Structure formats: C-alpha cells, structure tokens
Amino acid sequence: MSVQFIGMVVAQETSESIAPKGPALDKKYLRALVKAHDASGFDRILIAHSSASVDGLQIAADIIHQSDRIAVLLANRPGFISPTYAARAFATLDQFSDGRLAIHIISGGDDQEQQRDGDYLDHDQRYARSEEYIQILKEIWTNDQPIDHEGTYYKFKGAFSSIKPTQKPHIPIYFGGASDVAIKVAGRFADVYALWGESLAQVRETIARVRAAAAPFGRANQIKFSLSLRPVLGATEAKAWEKADEILTKAKAAVAQNSFYQRSNPPVNVGSLRLLETAATGRVVDKRLWTEIAALTGAKGNSTSLVGTPEQVAESLLEYYDLGITTFLIRGFNPLEDTIEYGRELIPLVRKAVAEREAAAPRVEAKAG
Questions:
Q1: By the 8 A CB rule, do 311 and 318 touch?
Q2: pLDDT at residue 267, as a whole number
Q3: Nearest partner of 267 among 256, 258, 277, 253, judged by Cα
Q4: Which residues of the chain are under the pLDDT cut of 70?
Q5: How many independent structural domains does the chain possess?
Q6: Which residue in 208, 156, 195, 182 sits closest to 304, CA to CA?
Q7: 240 in a domain, yes or no?
C-alpha cells in the first residue's frame, strides 16, 4: 500500500495557538501556504468549511491555478446548494484541475453552527441527507442520460450534466463521522473514510466497523482510510515536549480570543466525544499521542498530536499504517512553518519506510509460497 499526505490551507494565519491575524482572506499568506505544501511534497490540500469561512470552491479554483501538481480535497456540507448544481460545479473544477479534485462530505456535528446557515435538521437527519446527496452526485457524474429522483430531501426531474469529471468513474468521496449512522453511510458510499487522531486500539476498531458496513455492498476491501493528526517535532524528544507545552500555553490565551475554538455546550457529535474520552484517560495515550489541545477546545476539530523527534513520529505513523491507514492528514499549530518542517523532516522518512516495506513484500510472499 502506498502512502499519501494531505495538508490544509487556511485563508488567514490562525490556529488553536495563534489568534487570527490579517484579513479574512489573506491572499499573500494563502498562496505562501500553497507553495509550501507543493514544495514539501504533499499530495493534496484540504480546504475546510465552517458556517463563517471563506468560500472553499473559490479557494480550490485558486489553488489549482497556482500549481499544476498538487491536488485538492474540498470540504462540502450538504444542505445549502442543490446536489444537481454541485455535481456540475465539482465536475467543472475536476476538468480544470485535470483530475486533481476530491470532495470531503461533512454532514455537520454542531447544531448551533448548522443553524447559523439556516439548517435545523438533527444529527441523524443530516447524515441521511448526506447519503441521498452523495447518491445523486454519483448518479449524475456517471449517467449519460437525464435522471429523475424523488427522495426524502431532494426531488427533481430530468437532471443532467453535460460536463463529467475527468476522473472515472467519478470524483473520489471522502467521508467522516463516528456515529452508527455515519458509519452506515460511509460503508455504502465513501471512497476514503476519514478518522481523527485516536489511539491505535480505537483506530483498529473503527476500521473494522467501516469494513463491516461496506461488506454488504461488496466494498470491504475497496474503501481506504485517512487519519488526521497534528505532529509536533523536535530535535530531541525533550525539545518536542517543550514545544508542545509552549503550544498549549499559547493556545490557552488564543482560544479565549477566538470564538471558533470555544464551545458553549458539550459536543453532540460522536467524533468529538470519543476524542474527549481519550483525553480523559491522560495527557499522552499510546507512546506519544498528545491530547491536551483536544481537551482545551472541547475536541472542536482534529486536535490530537504525535509528539517526538521526526523518527519517533514517523514510527508512530507507521503503526497506524500497519492497521490500514494509507493517507495521513497532517497540519501544525503554526501552519506555514510546520508545513515546511514536515516536508523537510517527516514526510521523506515515512515515504522511505513505506517504500522499503512495499519492496520487501513480494519477497516475503514468495518465501511464504
């Protein structure tokens, strides 16, 4: 299994440990981030989504015109534009990018945030809507004739897109969510299932659940898995932990100024609840999974880290790889500097180790035969 790395861009300099700086759309900073990811060997860049964020589709278009290599993972929340229109918009962008687009369907785990955009469906209804939405996207992308649809959330007649994705049979769909209803949707439709950075035992359990959900559709061995983490690197393990402690100190001050990372109520989404349960077991889980930022922010987003030297963090990533993770979404608390450091210190180590394992695999199989 080869390995892929996904980074993440933000429209202005900000993170849990950095209060927002500059305009909401800082074009100079955004483009510096894109160049850093491109030069650092990332395969793809995530464009996240929130009810207050800069429009991701336009950022995606800007990125693909900046680079002719790096791919885009565009977060998209069903419920706010028609899936018939979305299918055409995404297919158009896939054509412009020569097949470098993937869509990350996010159903929404925070009732208050959904309501800011006028969405009052509950958690399970949102996932049911996502399921119908993805089904429509794939049908429009793969049908050469107009289609009719009458479902719970969408109804139309004669929908057709004259433009189809460059990628066949369709644009890859990433999907996340740890609840039973989310796992069910993922089993049916996800090309890549995205997990937050949990313990090895939790990741092993979730992969098994998703494969079991995919089995009735003949997809148990087709679905791939992505894991999101926030590596903190140091020249020595002690220096890495000094850096983590400094991040935590800064985060305590920055979170107080940034409403995005504040929670007025306990989380309702299962992914955040699972991260908080993990954080409650200790500051560090397994060898070096750091949980304190998750605890500080109420696990609002992927917020767990691997802390150590580049070699130690690479070793931990490979433990997840051995469980079936083939994509790592890694981003730092200092977005630009950490992106450059990952490309220099971490990504080459992991790629080299995976390549060595792949090269050795045929020999092992031949010996076993």
A1: no
A2: 77
A3: 277
A4: 1, 259-264, 362-369
A5: 1
A6: 195
A7: no
- Domain, as residue range, for 29: 4-230+309-368
Residues 164-206: pLDDT tens digits?
Answer: 999 999 999 999 999 999 999 999 999 999 999 999 999 999 9
Q: Give residue 269's pLDDT.
A: 82
Give the C-alpha separation, 24 to 86, whole Å.
25
Q: What residues have CB less than 8 Å from 304, skipping those under 6 apart?
A: 196, 197, 198, 229, 230, 275, 278, 279, 289, 290, 291, 293, 294
193, β-bridge pairs? 175, 225
CB atoms < 10 A from the CB of 23, how many? 12
Angle, vertex CA 205, rays to CA 305 and CA 312, nearest 5: 30
Burial (CB count within 10 angstroms: exposed 0-12, middle 13-18, buried 19+), residue 28: exposed
CB 103 within 8 A of CB 76: yes
- The helix-helix angle for 180-189 and 123-142 (nearest 10°) equals 10
| Residue 253 maps to a domain | no
The dihedral built from the CA positions of residue 10, 13, 19 and 24, taken in this order, carries a sign that is negative
pTM to 2 decimal places: 0.94
Residue whose token pair is 């983590």:
244
CATH number of domain containing 135: 3.20.20.30
Q: At what angle do helices 180-189 and 200-214 cross, to 10 degrees?
A: 60
Query: Tokens 């909401």 identify what position?
Result: 24
CA 329 to chain centre: 6
Question: Using an 8 Å Cβ cutoff, are 257 and 250 in contact?
Answer: no
In a domain, 290, yes or no: no
What does the alpha-carbon distance between residue 361 and residue 58 come to, in Å, rounded to a whole number?
42
